[in-house]
Automatic annotation (TrEMBL):
Species: Nonomuraea dietziae
Stretch forming the signal peptide: none
GO biological processes: carbohydrate metabolic process
Protein's name in the database: Putative repeat protein (TIGR01451 family)
Pfam (any one): DUF11
Domain DUF11: from-to ranges: 34-148
Lineage, broadest ranks: Bacteria, Bacillati, Actinomycetota, Actinomycetes, Streptosporangiales
Length: 271
């Protein structure tokens, strides 16, 4: 084999060095993954005593795959976790922490997430502060978007209460009055009172829109302003035994900070 000119040899060495550097850069890039995490809450304004749903979304913008990422979510302490929609998630060090390890790598451009269902405690004041952090076994080129914090305002809600009193009796026809009070601060436009009637059948109602059959009656009320009371009456035809009823008042839109008086019970003897 003849001699290789010095200029050619230098060029070959330069190409080899550049190729090695390119391979090293490629290995370095594929050993990185740019993970990001975002979170949203529904409803956007929480209600005391009502459900809230968090959606935590994770994305990998590459250039490499994220190796076995782990998502950690700290739910606000004012929210009791009811469940999540990912089987690999588990409780963390506290009841408010949810840890979701992925069993597979997350490829470039892929995304996924977890939905967390909870209920806001009746005494919650807000804002409800949720934090989430995503990490993996490889380096993240942009770690600033690996953490997210979401604050959710809590509506003041209303304070509904119900009270029952017995009315006139005419043989097996019994009557009662229900008084619903709203201590505010919000007015309630969708208040409903549900009654269990123990087999007694409603035959008349006055002051509310009521319906149902033997066993249960539901009454819808007009607007109950803050600081106001609404009274309505019901008449039942009871079987040959005392009428035992439980009444529960609620709003499907507004939370209640003091739910202890949302329920009332009464027993009416049959003559």
């Amino acid at each position: 084999m003849g001699r290789v000119p010095a200029r050619v040899l230098a060029g070959m060495v330069g190409v080899a060095v550049l190729a090695g550097q390119a391979a090293a850069r490629a290995d370095e890039e594929w050993g990185r993954a740019d993970l990001s995490v975002t979170v949203s809450a529904s409803p956007s304004v929480a209600q005391p005593g009502q459900l809230i749903t968090y959606r935590v979304q994770v994305r990998n913008d590459g250039p490499g795959d994220a190796v076995l990422p782990v998502l950690r979510v700290n739910v606000p302490p004012e929210v009791d976790v009811l469940g999540v929609d990912v089987a690999t998630c588990r409780p963390g060090r506290t009841v408010s922490e949810v840890i979701c390890p992925s069993e597979t790598d997350v490829i470039v451009g892929a995304n996924g997430g977890v939905t967390i269902h909870g209920i806001v405690r009746s005494g919650a004041r807000g804002p409800l502060r949720l934090t989430a952090h995503i990490s993996s076994a490889v380096e993240d080129g942009d770690p600033l978007d690996n953490d997210v914090t979401l604050g959710t305002r809590v509506d003041p809600g209303a304070d509904l209460g119900v009270r029952l009193t017995s009315g006139p009796k005419r043989g097996r026809r019994l009557s009662m009055a229900a008084t619903v009070r709203n201590r505010g601060p919000r007015a309630v436009r969708d208040a409903q009172v549900s009654f269990t009637t123990g087999g007694a059948r409603m035959v008349a109602a006055e002051g509310a829109r009521c319906g149902g059959g033997a066993g249960q009656v539901v009454c819808a009320l007009d607007r109950v302003a803050s600081g106001r009371k609404v009274r309505f009456t019901l008449a039942f035809r009871a079987p040959r035994r005392p009428l035992e009823t439980t009444a529960v008042v609620r709003s499907s839109r507004l939370g209640d900070r003091r739910p202890a008086d949302n329920q009332a019970r009464m027993r009416i003897a049959v003559r």
